[in-house]
């Protein structure tokens, strides 16, 4: 019987686990669970005899892959797969996949939750401001960006987008005005919502020069990855620009410095929670389980991210 391990340091909701089990049961596969593990050694022993693995932001390194001698496929139940060592997977002939789109709406809703929280003085009772009529720039127009645009229209915001991999026609069809350069996006928009992946090209790319182009009252919303931010540059900018606010679903490495120096102008969730809804857990978890069944029974490689 094939064994599928769900290894999540940040667990899925119970209903998602129940639904993953139904998918695996009906294929005759066995579910194994490792949740809330605190030490890498627990992961290393849990992977020892499994055929497949579902993870979230859990790091799948060459060490983990070496310990997983039977592993044929690992699925990141989510969008960003910067936690998977793709080269190491390829070298060991392990297929790596993600589940694009499955948790996107959850992340997009959190963008607006954080924006309202920030604009309403963190619910302190002070006089804040509204989103209506303001400009929002969607930096990377993938699945999350699409939902951010849809919701922004509901708030009557002016919606702009920049994504070199997405056609202007697609954005226009959704009522999003495409801008030709990243600089133009930052120059135009009071709010920027980041949806770029963390990779060698994007790490530290959101830097002081770019951020300083944003108009007065600028707000950067980060539900992507902390690695894309040049934190030193951002701190310098926030020192110079008392109008600038940073809202992030991922606590920065220099969180303490932000807290000390910029009270009222930052907000960080205690743990990355963009995808923490029952719906997103079910969608991403079940999609991952189905992809595993499909690959192991018929070789279907849709959503493979390593070659
Ligand atoms: C993603 O890339 O899908 C999101 O960042 C969610 O990550 P999580 O599953 O670790 O919450």
Automatic annotation (TrEMBL):
PANTHER family: FORMATE DEHYDROGENASE 1 (PTHR42938), HYDROXYPYRUVATE REDUCTASE (PTHR42938:SF47)
The name this protein goes by in its record: D-3-phosphoglycerate dehydrogenase
CDD domains in alphabetical order: PGDH_like_3 (cd12174)
Keywords, ordered alphabetically: Oxidoreductase
Domain D-isomer specific 2-hydroxyacid dehydrogenase catalytic as annotated: residue spans: 21-306
Source organism of this protein record: Natronoflexus pectinivorans
Pfam families, per database record: 2-Hacid_dh, 2-Hacid_dh_C
Boundaries of every D-isomer specific 2-hydroxyacid dehydrogenase NAD-binding domain copy: 126-250
Gene3D superfamilies noted in UniProt: NAD(P)-binding Rossmann-like Domain
Example of a GO MF term: NAD binding
Family membership noted in the UniProt record: Belongs to the D-isomer specific 2-hydroxyacid dehydrogenase family.
């Amino acid at each position: 019987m094939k064994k599928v391990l769900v290894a999540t340091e940040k667990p899925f909701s119970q209903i998602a686990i129940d639904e993953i089990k139904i998918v695996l049961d009906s294929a005759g596969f066995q579910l194994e669970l490792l949740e809330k593990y605190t030490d890498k050694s627990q992961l290393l022993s849990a992977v020892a005899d499994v055929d497949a693995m579902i993870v979230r932001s859990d790091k799948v390194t060459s060490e983990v892959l070496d310990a997983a001698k039977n592993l044929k496929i690992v699925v990141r139940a989510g969008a960003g797969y910067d936690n998977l060592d793709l080269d190491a997977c390829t070298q060991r002939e392990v297929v790596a996949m993600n589940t694009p789109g499955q948790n996107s709406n959850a992340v997009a809703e959190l963008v607006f939750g954080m924006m309202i929280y920030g604009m309403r003085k963190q619910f302190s009772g002070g006089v804040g401001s509204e989103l209506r009529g303001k400009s929002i720039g969607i930096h990377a127009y993938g699945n999350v960006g699409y939902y951010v645009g849809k919701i922004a229209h509901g708030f009557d915001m002016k919606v702009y987008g920049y994504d070199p991999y997405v056609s202007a026609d697609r954005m226009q069809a959704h009522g999003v005005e495409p801008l030709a350069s990243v600089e133009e996006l930052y120059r135009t928009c009071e709010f920027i919502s980041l949806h770029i992946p963390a990779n060698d090209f994007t790490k530290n790319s959101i830097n002081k020069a770019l951020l300083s182009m944003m108009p007065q009252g600028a707000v950067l919303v980060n539900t992507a990855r902390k690695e894309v931010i040049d934190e030193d540059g951002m701190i310098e900018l926030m020192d110079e620009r008392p109008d600038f606010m940073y809202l992030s679903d991922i606590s920065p490495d220099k969180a303490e410095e932000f807290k000390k120096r910029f009270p009222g102008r930052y907000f960080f969730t205690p743990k990355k929670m963009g995808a923490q809804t029952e719906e997103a857990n079910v969608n991403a978890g079940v999609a991952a389980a189905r992809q595993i069944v499909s690959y192991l029974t018929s070789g279907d490689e849709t959503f493979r991210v390593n070659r």
